[in-house]
Design a protein that fits this description.
- The complex is a heterodimer.
- Chain A is an alpha/beta fold.
- Chain A contains nine helices and eight strands.
- In chain A, strand 7, helix 8 and strand 8 form a beta-alpha-beta unit.
- In chain A, helix 1 packs across helix 6, helix 3 packs across helix 4 and helix 4 packs across helix 5.
- By secondary structure, chain B is an alpha/beta fold.
- Chain B folds into four domains: 194 residues, Pyruvate-ferredoxin oxidoreductase, PFOR, domain III (Pyruvate-ferredoxin Oxidoreductase, domain 3, 3-Layer(aba) Sandwich); 176 residues, 3-Layer(aba) Sandwich (Rossmann fold), CATH 3.40.50.970; 68 residues, no CATH class; 114 residues, Rossmann fold (3-Layer(aba) Sandwich).
- Chain B is 37% helix and 22% strand.
- In chain B, helix 18 links the parallel strand 22 and strand 23.
- Chain B is globular, with a radius of gyration of 26 Å.
- The two termini of chain B are 41 Å apart.
- Chains A and B meet through strand 1, strand 2, helix 2 and helix 4 of A and helix 1, strand 9, helix 8, strand 11 and helix 10 of B.
């Protein structure tokens, strides 16, 4: 009997030859680097990984990897990924989204994906703006941010994705910053390896429509405390920090969603007797 | 006395009561007993919008030959009570020889019933039930119906035992005694008709609803994943699939909405597992964007739309065929996909299985347009043959990195699909216009090449004889689709018995439009009556847009909820040719 040594991967093994459409300086380039590094570190072959997305700058992500990808419709990436993971529990499933795709049009799916706790990892690149449509406010945009679509600002309170994830039942909650590649890579590995639904918010500056976000690199700081398994404590910390705490904030112990399709299908003839008189 | 009775080849019985009184159970017992004794039959239901406590009617039609649609006139109406019955009394007109049996404790007979010309008589259903410990009036009603129709007591007792022994011998004994009391009561009631004898139980019989048949059809077709969002009148498909998929190694996920359910199904199918979801009009409207995605990214998926009255929330519990336009034309952009429709309850099984085969083989979304009249009706059918449409998806077996072209332009337009886990097959499925490799592109030639490919793969496919049921002789044609086929077929037989030769063309494949086979089937027809249950004549307009029909064409269309019956179609034809 020969034992095969598992292949060692480099980050470049998980990159495709397609050039991203992102603007120079976009935080999403760093996220691509962190994700591919994390995948290389975990050593799962690229063909056993699926990267699923919706619509927006961040959602262009799958084609830039050398994994299987699905660039779906706006806001529905979590639903695509849920079907895929239940049908193919053998795959590693990553879902890549942005603050518009994930929290606005896809907001309801976010709540229910947290509740359902299917074993997959949801990475949202949050730049607090719709970039692909050239600069409109998203659910995480500050209330006074001026734009053509919302002159003088929306006046609306920003959405708190991490708290909402906790309240909805996500099993792993973390925040990181695109520019801190070492920390982001570590957190992505931990998120993928944690059972159930893992949510990672990556603060990823939009240098084109939010040049002020270049300052984020000076604003982020490590979370001062260890991750908790108490969602109420985690939520309180997140609600009272400055929004720039990075690190793993919550690790839950809920059992992942149980339903899955077996590799071998059973025979449908078993149903005939149900209807025969 | 029996020899004086007129023997009817088919008999229609309505059992009416307040919700919870058990009218539907009584109807089901009657239907199943008739099936065990060798008759065919169908049972629809008329229920109000109330969750509990409203009105309910079991509409049972029994026959010595297979039946595909409800009767237009009722021979027997048994009312346990008349609470709210006036709301649907107009939907069950009584035959001239009809008999109405009502419980004197059950309130006033609605005027439309009293004025029908049918014979009115009383039976103390509640009082009879009270005399039997554990007795229930609906079982008395079932006994009366069976007694008048002439269903043998042993068949009823078999059904009562099968259904009630699980609840204990006392419950079953009460049921048996109620049936006996009902049958004894029937002998005292004035009636001059009975059901003609069954032609014998020559084949194994099934009792199944259209929704169950559709569920079984997709599972036979290879579906092992379903995503579900409840909606009337499609929920029963999903509720059948939930435990059944588990039995065959599959899974059903309850989604948060229809946007999620269709995308879950697409995700599962991207992973290589045949997938389905079921819905009704409002849900289909929400799924349309994702159906465009499945078309563009070439991911097979089946959506069963059990149509109800529309638009908007419409009439959730009643049937209509008015989702044809959205099913065929709903997607933005040029998005060729397949639309099929089952022609009767038994055909829900066949067409659902075929839908999976078409989706999987051509890597395309398929919408199956069933409707409430099929989905929620239960029928006695001949045990269906196990058709072997084994869904075969053309797969990419793997190869060297960088060689694979997911959307390669092939002779038949169908390109091998790589499933996750296949080394060298990695690609990104995309709703963006893409190159053969799947890389997003906004170039004219890439756009045209992929639009052509997606059109040609379904237009050039061989659908065989399954595109329609065509039968009969003559230069007058009834052209219809989906669930109206049953009434149309019955009209054809009735007219032929009068010496009027009529042909039937009932379309199962609606899109891509089978122009060649349809024109061939119509041949040199002089008159074509297009029959459908819509307000605007959607099917007629669709046909006119797709081809030049031969001869004179008339459109007979009406919205729901009143079903279009065989007699009305006969009248249209008779008036036309005379």
């Amino acid at each position: 009997m020969t034992v095969q040594t598992p292949r060692r991967y480099k980050a470049s093994d998980f990159k495709s030859d397609i050039n991203p459409i992102w603007c120079p300086g976009c935080g999403d380039y760093h996220v691509l680097l962190s994700v591919t590094r994390a995948l290389a570190e975990m050593g799962t072959p690229p063909e056993d990984i699926a990267v699923i997305s919706g619509i927006g700058c961040s959602s262009r992500f799958p084609a830039y990897t050398n994994c299987y990808g699905f660039h779906g419709v706006h806001g529905r990436s979590l639903a695509l990924a849920t079907g895929l993971k239940v049908a193919r529990p053998d795959l590693t499933v990553l879902v890549m989204s942005g603050d518009g795709d994930g929290f606005s049009i896809g907001g309801n799916h976010f709540l229910h994906a947290c509740r359902r706790n299917v074993d997959m990892t949801y990475i949202v690149m949050d730049n607090r703006v719709y970039g692909m449509t050239k600069g409109q406010p998203s659910p995480t945009t500050e209330p006074d941010w001026d734009s053509a679509l919302s002159p003088g600002g929306t006046g609306l309170s920003p959405f708190h994705p991490l708290v909402i994830a906790l309240a909805s039942g996500a099993n792993f909650v973390a925040r990181t910053f695109s520019g801190d590649i070492r920390n982001a890579t570590r957190i992505i590995v931990e998120a993928v390896q944690h059972p159930g639904f893992s949510f990672v918010e990556i603060l990823s500056p939009c240098v084109t429509f939010r040049p002020d976000e270049r300052e984020w690199k000076n604003m982020v700081h490590p979370a001062a405390v260890e991750p908790t398994d108490d969602p109420a404590r985690a939520a309180r910390r997140i609600m009272t920090d400055d929004g720039f705490n990075v690190g793993v904030l919550y690790k839950g112990r809920r059992k992942p969603f149980a339903g899955q399709v077996a590799a071998e299908a059973g025979d449908a003839a078993v149903f005939d007797e149900e209807f025969a008189l | 006395m029996a020899e004086e009775k007129k023997l009817l080849e088919t008999i229609a019985i309505s059992i009416v009561g307040s919700g919870g009184a058990g009218a539907l159970t009584a109807g089901t017992i009657l239907l199943e007993a008739a099936g065990r004794a060798g008759w065919y039959g169908i049972m629809g239901r008329s229920v109000g919008p109330q969750i509990r406590g409203g009105e309910a009617a079991a509409l049972v039609r029994l026959s010595s030959r297979p039946v595909e649609c409800m009767s237009e006139a009722y021979d027997l109406l048994i009312a346990m009570d008349w609470n709210n019955a006036e709301r649907f009394a107009a939907d069950m007109p009584l035959a001239a020889h009809g008999l109405v049996v009502s419980d004197p404790e059950g309130g006033e007979i609605p005027e439309v019933i009293a004025a029908s010309g049918a014979t009115m008589t009383n039976a103390a259903l509640k009082a009879l039930a009270k005399e039997i410990p554990g007795g229930r009036e609906n079982m008395i009603a079932a006994g009366i119906a069976a007694g008048i129709a002439g269903i043998p007591a042993e068949s009823l007792m078999e059904v009562v035992d099968a259904r009630l022994l699980g609840k204990g011998e006392a419950v079953a004994e009460a049921g048996r005694r109620c049936i006996e009391a009902g049958m004894a009561q029937a002998a005292t009631l004035p009636h001059d008709f009975a059901l003609a004898p069954a032609e014998g139980k020559t084949s194994p019989r099934w009792l199944i609803t259209g929704n169950e048949a559709a569920g079984l059809g997709v599972v036979r077709g290879g579906v092992r994943f379903a995503a579900a969002y409840p909606i009337t009148p499609a929920t029963e498909i999903l509720e059948w699939l939930a435990p059944s998929l588990e039995r065959v190694g599959g899974a059903l996920v309850q989604a948060e909405d229809e946007l999620a359910s269709i995308n879950m199904a697409i995700g599962a199918s991207f992973g290589g597992r045949a997938a389905v979801t079921a819905t009704s009009g409002p849900g289909l409207a929400l799924m349309i964007e994702a159906l465009g995605l499945a078309t563009a990214s070439e991911v097979p998926v089946v959506v069963i739309d059990v149509m109800r009255g529309g638009p908007s929330t419409g009439i959730p519990t009643k049937s209509e065929q008015s989702d044809l336009n959205i099913a065929v034309y709903g997607c933005h952009g040029d998005a060729p996909h397949v639309v099929v429709a089952p022609l009767n309850i038994a055909d829900c099984l066949f067409t659902a299985q075929w839908a999976v085969y078409l989706a999987e083989t051509m890597q395309v979304p398929v919408i199956m347009l069933s409707d409430q009249a099929l989905g929620q009706a239960r029928a006695l059918i001949d045990a269906p043959a196990n058709v072997s449409f084994i869904a075969r998806r053309k797969l990419y077996e793997g190869g060297a990195q960088g060689e694979y072209e997911r959307y390669a332009l092939t002779a038949d337009g169908i390109s091998p699909m790589a499933l996750p886990g296949t080394a060298g097959g990695q690609y990104t499925a995309d709703g963006l216009t893409h190159t053969v490799r799947g890389v997003p592109s906004s170039k004219s030639d890439d756009h045209l090449a992929q639009l052509d490919k997606r059109r040609d793969k379904i237009a050039g496919f061989n659908y065989g004889d399954h595109w329609a049921d065509a039968e009969g002789e003559g230069d007058t044609v009834i052209l219809t689709w989906g669930s109206l086929s049953g009434a149309a077929r019955e009209a054809m037989h009735a007219l032929s018995a009068e010496g009027i030769s009529v042909r039937l063309v009932a379309m199962r494949l609606l899109s891509p439009f089978p122009e060649g086979p349809l024109l061939q089937a119509l041949g040199d027809a002089r008159r074509i009556l297009v029959v459908e249950q819509t307000h605007s004549g959607q099917f007629h307009r669709y046909l006119r847009a797709q081809c030049d029909l031969p001869g004179d064409v008339r459109s007979f269309h009406r919205p729901g909820p009143k079903p279009i019956g065989a007699g009305e179609i006969c009248t249209q034809i008779r008036d036309w040719i005379s």
